From TrEMBL:
Its main location: cytoplasm. This is Centrosomal protein of 76 kDa. The gene is CEP76. GO terms for cellular component: centriole. It is found in: Cytoplasm, Cytoskeleton, Microtubule organizing center, Centrosome, Centriole. Centrosomal protein involved in regulation of centriole duplication. Required to limit centriole duplication to once per cell cycle by preventing centriole reduplication.
Amino acid sequence: MSLPPEKASELKQIIHNHLLKMDIHGKIREVLAETVRDDQGPARRSLSEADFLRALQRRGIIDDMMKDLHFTQEAGTEAETGSPTKPAAHFVDKDITHLKKTNIDPSRRCLYLQVLGGKAFLEHLQEPDPLPGQVCSTFTLYLHFRNQRFRSKPVPCACEPDLKEGFLLEIHRDGIGESGKMADATSMLSMCDPVHFVLIKTDTSSETMLVSSYFLDWRTVLSSPSSKTCFAVELMGVGSESKVPAGVLTVSLELYPPLPEILSADIISTQQSLERQRAAEKERLFLVYAKQWWREFLEIRPSNQTKLVKIFAQDENGVNRPVCSYVRVLRAGRLLESPRQAARFVSLLAHEKAPVVGGGGKQEQWCTLMAFLCRGKGDCEDHATLLCSLQLGFGMDAYVCVGTKAKGVPHAWVLTRGTDGSITFWESLTAHRYLHRPIDPDAPPLAPQPKPSYPYRTVGCVFNHQTFLANCQPSDAVELCVFDFQNQSRWKAMSEEALKSVCAPGSTTSLPPLPPLCSPSLDPAAASNQLELEMRYLVSEHRKDLDLATVWDDHLSYLLSSALSAYELERCTGVSCGNEEFQDAVRRAVPDGHTFKGFPIHFLHRNARRAFATCLRSPFCEEIVCCRGDHVRLAVRVRVFVYPENACAVWIMFA
């Protein structure tokens, strides 16, 4: 790492001042005198520099000096030093995380993971280097390790992307392992938590795409001389391309402080193969059990063959896992306040079916939670498993239902059971809630029957992190279904022991670790202002094209805030309030003889042009934006509500 001369002299000055402050010269004189005195024995020999350094180390002076030095931990330590190989393209990292200084605790072990660049991303082979000031697609690398999450700076997509970052991972988190005692080589050998890499591509219209999801076993560093190692990691594609390489990252690992004695490579490979064998054996036994269980289920009644009973699902890497392993008890700390707010948060993650090349049926792909959160969008199964995990964290009796909607489209949603036996369905894509009352097929013809309000047609099975139940009632229609899970004639359960052996956290090494939710880094006020200015500009330009002048009414714009706030509150809690005050304020603000027209609309993204194009498709909105008259005053208000993972509810009102 070469420094420019002015930086080097500045660094020398800082070191010099630090040594003066510690009175290092005085301490060195003392140690020197003492060492010479000790060496005046009969076997006199000349003192070497190494003897002297040992003496300084023995007296703890070097340690004291190192203890006072402050290192900075930042998401991109290496990125600054890397030589700029291509002109910086114009992309704005909207979610800037302010880097904070941190002291490396010398009594704790850390793993310093550096990404030293990417190569062979052949999909971008033909892409020209972006011109300065040009908006381009970007790669962002996300990491998760033992409850810690990191994100790299976005870099322009290229065949050899300039991904150069350093991440400081604590191997010893508080509350995990014996706190206070430094993790030694054997305790680290037994830590099978991988480092999960997720590479996301963001295109010019801010749409995200999952490029690769990779689990790195970092324990090779335990057998590396001086606890440092560097190697290439081949990232594979996802879904139908999970056998095709997506690109290569060069990764270097370094343990700090280094291990006094390293392990032999054989020990590490033996440990890894033992873990793999143990996991494979558990999975084999579960598969044998699942086949036997399925045979018994079909013997109950032949029509069970057609029911949607999903025991295994493929993740983004094409790995088949039991569906129960996709649900865990997930507590959101202080980031979410209630089950209803959790449902609102999950509904703000966009819905997108897994991309498939060519026609044919739906390509089914469930996602690990980390990949789903980093991408910010996924299919209905990803939404349902996340919502169920959060509901379990809030202490509810929650399950994921797998069944169909109208026209037999496969679907997944969440069910919660009250202590009084009441059943509530939660639609994870919209946060709508429906109360379920079964129709009694044996009731007299004229008896009043409940009218179902939910969109679900059939249900084949329900599951959570420790239960799997298949529907063995004569009909799998939701409206006829009775959800008393204790009744074995209606629901056939899998053994909880069998499920625990492959789905409980830590049961097998092949289970991906559960990441924590990240608090939002967006400033809602700044994001609202920015988007509102852009919307005003777009409205003015649009009216200019129609030869119309635009007069903005700032007071009216401000009054629209309370309406937008009430709309979001209603989406979160299901209770509407504050409408009377808004209507009263508008009546006062609109002069006699004038009419007020308002059009609220809700988005999940912050792209002004996309939002405005969508708004203009509505005749109501177009009527307001293109309004002609003598005293036309326009108002627009934007309110961005920010949730964990930077999920946004964007409300816009034109008036």
